[in-house]
Design goal:
Length: about 90
């Protein structure tokens, strides 16, 4: 069972905002205030983009330009954290 499914099973009443195609980058859930939010590893997000066919440099650029820049505009957006440093 993957992390997302574990979270959905444990919090069936929650409506989480997910990032398309990045389920493998989910590392947890933030529960200190409602609504609860998914937590993504930035490093795993970049890895997902590489697995989708980007070079590592393209993946980092894509994350920085598209993913990271969109988060402030999403209500109850997921939390993105570095779990390792490039």
């Amino acid at each position: 069972m993957n992390k997302l499914q574990q979270i959905l099973d444990n919090y069936p009443e929650e409506s989480f905002i997910k990032l398309d195609g990045l389920d493998d980058a989910i590392i947890g859930v933030e529960t200190s205030q409602e609504p609860f939010r998914l937590v993504y590893s930035i490093n795993d997000i970049v890895d997902c983009f590489v697995e989708q066919g980007m070079t590592p440099d393209e993946a980092i650029d894509f994350y920085e330009y598209n993913t990271a820049r969109s988060i402030p505009y999403i209500t109850n957006a997921p939390i993105l954290i570095y779990t390792d440093f490039f």
